[in-house]
Amino acid sequence: MDSEQLSEQELVAAAQSGDRAALSALLEAQYNRVFAVCVRMMGDRHTAEDQAQETLIRITRSLSTFDGRASLSTWCHRVATTTCLDEMRRRRRRPATSPLVNDEGVSVDPEQPHSTEAFAGIEWSDVRSDIADALNAIPREFAEAVVLRDVLDLEYNEIAELMSVASGTVKSRIARGRGMLAERLRGNQTPGDERPTGGENP
After folding, report:
1. Which of 6, 32, 71, 138 is at a distance of 20 to 30 A from 199, taking alpha carbons?
2. R_g of the chain computed on alpha carbons
3. What are the φ/ψ torsions at residue 137 (nearest 5 degrees)?
4. What is the C-alpha to C-alpha distance for residues 168 and 35, in angstroms, rounded to an integer?
5. Which is higher by pLDDT, 4 or 118?
């Protein structure tokens, strides 16, 4: 089978059936997008390369679960996001190491996602070491929704497809996730605020 002449849908079907050439072609086509996600979340190219490779491994292992309801690239975005979040959590449990340096020779924090709206009004110098902790402390579905919107700039409908929920639920998770993160990053959290009460919007 000539993988170069297959559509994305056909590539996925072939790869899910065990066609190694189709799988390789699929992974190669997604790598640049995956790497871009990892760079934005991890903050430096070296760490991003490691997480991009881990993402490809996870894509390979879980490809059989891909059902086509979201586009393949959108689904791969979420796998990359989850992979980076997991690594950020692991790093918060490790002893501190020497700072990394990016391609411009500037010291960077690999645990800092470059978020926008979620952290408006908060000085980065005050929260650089706390962002991974804050993401780790709130429920995963809220952390993922905020990252997908504020770090990766996905549209609400894309996030809804990714998370298999309604757009209203996406907006609710983002709003509540931003609120929980802002409280934690400002040091105003109170006991029990990890799990908000009440249901999400349908």
Report:
1. 71
2. 18
3. -85, -20
4. 29
5. 4
For residues 180 and 138, give the distance between their C-alpha atoms in angstroms, rounded to a whole number: 7
Percent of the chain at pLDDT > 70 equals 70
First to last CA, the chain: 44
Q: Name the 3-class secondary structure at 137.
A: helix
Over residues 58-84, mean pLDDT = 90
- Record the tokens describing residue 112, joined without a space: 């800092």
Domains and CATH numbers, the chain: 1-101 (1.10.1740.10), 112-202 (1.10.10.10)
Predicted TM-score (pTM) of the model is: 0.61
Relative to beta strand 100-101, strand 107-108 is antiparallel
Token pair recorded at residue 197: 């009460």
